[in-house]
Amino acid sequence: MTKIKPLAYALIVALALLIAVPVAWVLVASLKTKGEFFGSPWTLPEGLHLRNYVDAFVTAHMGQYFATSLFVTLLGLAFVLAVSIPAAYVIARYDFWGKSVVEVALLAGLFVNVNYIVVPIFLMLVGWDRSLADVFPDGFFIDNPAMLSLIYAATSIPFTIYLLTAYFRSIPADYEEAASLDGASRWTVMTRVMVPMARPAVTTVILFNFLAYWNDFIIALTLLPGEGKTLQVGLLNLMTAQKAAADYGRLYAGMVIVIVPVLLVYALIQRRLIEGMAAGGVKG
Q1: In this structure, how many other beta carbons lie within 10 angstroms of the beta carbon of residue 126?
Q2: CATH 1.10.3720.10 at 50-279, yes or no
Q3: What digits encode the pLDDT tens for the residues 176-204?
Q4: How far apart are CA 125 and CA 118, in angstroms?
Q5: Global confidence as pTM
Q6: 237 vs 60, 241, 243, 255, CA distance in Å?
Q7: Which residues are within 8 A (CB) of 253 and not within 5 positions of it... i.e. 6 or more apart?
Q8: Whole-Å CA distances, 125 to 132, 142, 205, 280
């Protein structure tokens, strides 16, 4: 046992370095001037060249793309939680006609990769825009960040409901019975009792869906062909532009703008997830 622990710690440290070193290198490279990139790539910058971030936000429009990604991600999370939490609670606690069919359909949805159906989704939305051309001549479904959020939520509902349903079923019914005896309605039982107790599962789906929405590229590239791009698509355009301009500092600054929110959200969500799991036990 004493021999396994040092080996496990060494493996954990090695994996942590594999993640931390590239992130640190990108952060350091984002603070370098153009001339410093022609030297050793591992040298530290002579100063904090924050102009790269200003250029990335303003000149390369990364600030606009950041706002679009943040709007799309938060709205998508609101959509998926508003639908998935009540649906998962009903599936976990109530019997109704066709319940088995609904569960099988949701389970089948877990095996559908949204990147494989993005073209049919695009053609469907284009058809809807054509049918509403008299009302919305400039289109409504394509190049609409709110519609992109709805697509994100719709495609992640099977996973979200599946995970929440499993957790709701693991919570003893004694809590619901006690709340009902106190006169609580079904809605109150769900929102005041069950959802707080399911905080670890809710936190988990928020984390996974946030990462999926924020890091998406293919769907955003397909459904937002105009100027209102997300951060991932804008970063690709920035990378393409910098190949000719050789302004690598602004390019790495754009990468940091993409990475930092994910790291912050992951750190915050992970801490809350551990706290929720520690406080979610059943006390006798």
Answers
A1: 13
A2: yes
A3: 888 888 888 888 888 888 888 888 889 88
A4: 11
A5: 0.85
A6: 9, 6, 10, 12
A7: 30, 52, 53, 55, 56, 62
A8: 11, 6, 27, 43
